């Protein structure tokens, strides 16, 4: 096959892999395409809950047609026995001729071992095709493995003067229905949606993905030192249907009424009066979370920025102003000089209905 056709098949594998974002954790969201004589005979992506893996799905679809085929996979095939046998061994057993891999897997259980298994079996292995795109798609998985924390996206929905509610606390809805639908799509591509305890108490949010037919809802995370979310609120009442995790002071137990409702407590370190953000993200990573979508409030958002852990910032801006008495999107950051403020690079800017969406990525 030509380099151009290889790129087309890898682009398809990447698009398939993205279907697993927010669904596949704790495993990476991988895509796989199997081609024989120029025809696609199998394709797959990591299924909800992380298995079966993309390669297994594609091989099952291809059947005997996989023998002598070319395989395009977005991440190095796994080489360890977990809940399923290694995908590298499955590719060898299927008799494939060539495997093209976009990105190596830094997980020490896999790193280089999957490629070695393939090469020792006489399979041609090529790496690095569309690596940058694969790295972007795997940013959350890579962050969990290499930095010990998930990728963090901070979403702010504000008026043009940076307010998230009126002075009386009214906030529904600053942005329009089109923007809210886009936000639901963003939630669906993250493993967890996170808010602060104040937001959970004041807004009683559901934090679920609605109207998109997702198979697996994101985990709902509340950061609350005293774990004092309402026992009769929507989060606690639905905790057995969609998981609710409360990150709280490790020196205090989760209230029994919340535990009885099915809420899960994650004990974390405390700094001053607040739960320490690094401890929160480490606890989430230990649970397998790779991508977190933070929706406020202002104190939690400011804590994330102060800790320099925001990887992407999404600003939904509506065409109205609420004035100085409105509630600001961010709490105090203790910045006295512009040089102290973290800079973000604009990655996307577009209208969404009557609002404007700007997506910014951290400059690190």
Secondary structure topology:
Elements: H1 3-18, E1 31-36, E2 39-45, H2 54-62, E3 70-73, H3 87-94, E4 98-101, H4 113-120, E5 124-127, H5 131-137, H6 139-147, E6 151-158, E7 163-165, H7 177-188, E8 192-196, H8 197-203, E9 219-223, H9 234-237, E10 244-249, H10 256-261, E11 264-268, E12 270-271, E13 274-275, H11 277-286, E14 291-294, H12 298-306, E15 312-317, E16 327-328, E17 344-352, E18 355-362
Parallel strand pairs: 3-4, 4-5, 6-14, 6-15, 8-9, 8-14, 9-10, 10-11
Antiparallel strand pairs: 1-2, 1-3, 7-16, 12-13, 15-18, 17-18
Helix pairs in contact: 3-4
Structure at a glance:
The chain is of the alpha/beta class. It is built from 12 helices and 18 strands. It is globular, with a radius of gyration of 22 Å.
CATH superfamily membership of the largest domain: Dihydrofolate Reductase, subunit A
- The CATH class of the largest domain: Alpha Beta
Distance between the termini: 38 Å
Question: What is the spatial order of strands in the main beta sheet?
Answer: 11-10-9-8-14-6-15-18-17
Largest sheet: number of strands, sense, barrel closure = 9 strands, mixed
Number of helices: 12
Q: Uncertain regions: pLDDT < 50 for 5+ in a row? A: none
Q: Give the oligomeric state of the chains in this entry, treating copies of one chain as homo and distinct chains as hetero.
A: single chain
Mean pLDDT: 94
Structure description:
The protein contains twelve helices and 18 strands. The chain is 29% helix and 25% strand. The chain has 364 residues and is of the alpha/beta class. The chain has helices at 3-18, 54-62, 87-94, 113-120, 131-137, 139-147, 177-188, 197-203, 234-237, 256-261, 277-286, 298-306, and strands spanning 31-36, 39-45, 70-73, 98-101, 124-127, 151-158, 163-165, 192-196, 219-223, 244-249, 264-268, 270-271, 274-275, 291-294, 312-317, 327-328, 344-352, 355-362. The chain is globular, with a radius of gyration of 22 Å. The chain folds into two domains: 3-137, Cytidine Deaminase, domain 2, CATH 3.40.140; 146-362, 3-Layer(aba) Sandwich (Dihydrofolate Reductase, subunit A). The strands form four sheets. It has a nine-stranded mixed sheet with strand order 11-10-9-8-14-6-15-18-17, sandwiched between helices. A five-stranded mixed sheet has the order 2-1-3-4-5, with helices on both faces. The chain has a two-stranded antiparallel sheet with strand order 7-16.
């Amino acid at each position: 096959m030509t380099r151009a056709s290889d790129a087309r098949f890898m682009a398809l594998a990447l698009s398939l892999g993205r279907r697993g974002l927010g669904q596949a954790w704790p495993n990476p969201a991988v895509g796989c395409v199997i081609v024989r004589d120029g025809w696609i005979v199998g394709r797959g992506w990591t299924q909800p809950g992380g298995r079966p893996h993309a390669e297994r799905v594609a091989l099952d679809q291809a059947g005997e047609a996989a023998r002598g085929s070319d395989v395009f996979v977005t991440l190095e095939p796994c080489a360890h026995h977990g809940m399923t046998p290694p995908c590298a061994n499955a590719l060898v057993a299927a008799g494939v001729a060539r495997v093209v891999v976009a990105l190596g897997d830094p997980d020490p259980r896999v790193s280089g071992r999957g490629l070695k298994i393939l090469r020792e079996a006489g399979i041609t292995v090529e790496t690095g095709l569309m690596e940058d795109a694969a790295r972007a798609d795997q940013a959350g998985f890579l962050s969990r493995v290499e930095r010990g924390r998930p990728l963090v996206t901070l979403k702010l929905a504000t008026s043009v003067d940076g307010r998230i509610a009126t002075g009386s606390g009214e906030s529904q809805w600053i942005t329009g229905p089109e923007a809210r639908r886009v936000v639901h799509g963003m939630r669906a591509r993250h493993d967890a949606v996170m808010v602060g305890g104040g937001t959970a108490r004041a807004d009683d949010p559901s934090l679920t993905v609605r109207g998109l037919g997702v198979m697996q809802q994101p985990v709902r995370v509340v950061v609350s030192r005293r774990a004092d979310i309402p026992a009769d609120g929507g989060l606690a009442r639905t905790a057995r249907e969609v998981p609710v995790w409360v990150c709280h002071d490790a020196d205090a137990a989760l209230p029994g009424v919340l535990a009885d409702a099915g809420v899960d407590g994650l004990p974390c370190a405390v700094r001053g009066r607040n739960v320490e953000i690094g401890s929160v993200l480490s606890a989430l990573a230990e649970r397998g979370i790779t991508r977190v979508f933070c929706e406020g409030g202002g104190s939690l958002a400011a804590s994330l920025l102060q800790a320099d852990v925001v990887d992407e910032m999404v600003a939904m801006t509506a065409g109205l102003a609420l004035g100085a008495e409105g509630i600001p999107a961010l709490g105090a950051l203790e910045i006295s000089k512009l040089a102290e403020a973290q800079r973000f690079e604009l990655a996307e800017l577009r209208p969404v209905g009557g609002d404007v969406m700007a997506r910014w990525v951290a400059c690190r």
